[in-house]
Amino acid sequence: MVKLTEQNREQYAKSILDALNVEDIQEFRHLFLELHPQDQLDFFLELTEIQRKKVYEYLSPEEFSEIFQELELEEQKNTIEELDTIYTQSVFAEMSADDAADFLGEVPEATVKRVLDGLESEDAKDIRELLSYEEETAGAIMTKEFINITAQSTVRDVIELLRQEGPDAETIYYLYVVNGNHELAGVVSLRDLIISDPNEKVENVMSTRVVSVKTDDDQEDVANLIKKYDFLAVPVVTSTNTLVGIITVDDIIDVIEEEATEDIGELAASRGATDVNLSSFTAAKKRSPWIIMLMFFGLITAGVIGQFEETLEQIVLLAVFIPLLMDSAGNTGTQSLAVMVRSLATGSFEKKGMFNTIKREFGTGIFLGLICAIVLMILIPIVYGDVMIAIIVAVSLFFTLSIATIVGAVVPVIINKMKLDPAIASGPFITTVNDVLGLMIYFSIATAMLQYL
Question: Which own/partner contact pairs does 84-90 have at CB distance under 8 Å and 24+ positions apart?
Fold first, then answer.
């Protein structure tokens, strides 16, 4: 396999492209198949439609399946439109059931039927089973390509089984032991098999303390479990402990990326619109509900300012510090929100407890407020020559930042208790709430202090 560097990547790609353009099939296959699959993918994405059709002709369905399953969903949809039905069915026959199900779960039923009609009944059954599970659950992301063994088998028998079935399995580092009812009974690692006596029975080598997940467990919980135990794979069982699949660490990496993208979208009030491949119209459509809702929240902020119009008319200088107060409150609240959402996602919130976590954020807000208040007490008299204004702004900011951290910490906890994703307590939402609270604190203090100004 060729390992490309920045220096030879361009020249090597040119050689492959030249072979493709002159229809030198043997040279193309020799150069192309020497590449790492990811480099093959990069090369394929640079081709024109005419050149891609040559690739489909020169590569077998098995060879092309390695490229197809690494494409992004939209790229897969475009590619499958260029393939004839027989080639498409052959490609999916070579793919693992979970990768095939990931794609087929996002396309029309007509496409699903077109693909499944050409597969062997057992393969089609596996894919339909995966499609039957609810999205973002263990059942939906598990793979059916795994090896299970019985406790009465000898180590020699299992090693021989691995030689025969190992190439088609997703992973062979863990082998799961089942009883006569196909219920999960134990687990044995490849290492344990290799160092054991060939005549030893599996029941004497396996561990019965198996950590497993249920088919309806949330994929994020599965990711946390694999992270906690440093597993390469975890078995998936039904409510009756029947072994139905496994989830490997490479699938979990995809889950972590997906969940992180989703949380970023929630925090930025742009869920579903973070994909740069979306059109401007689609992105705007997905973002607009939040923006419109926050616009109405902005009217509340304007209403708060309007309630203290008399105070502003008497001391116009107070208006200068409104952006400072609002920005500081919003930023501080968003920081607390990010900390809390992460602690909820990683499980550290449960370890620390609600009281200790919120206490820590409140303490952080107090110290931040104190530091900022001291800085303002020094700067405002120098710049504006008004000590009393400095006191009002400093005290207001102290209380605002202290409360902003509480809001940023408590809101996602409440949402989490409601069995919703805490990330929906988005940054813009928290910012708007803290803006309103900050302005009320600011103008209340300023109004109370008018007689001293």
Answer: 85/114, 85/118, 86/118, 87/56, 87/61, 88/114, 88/115, 88/118, 89/114, 89/115, 89/117, 89/118, 89/119, 90/61, 90/62, 90/118
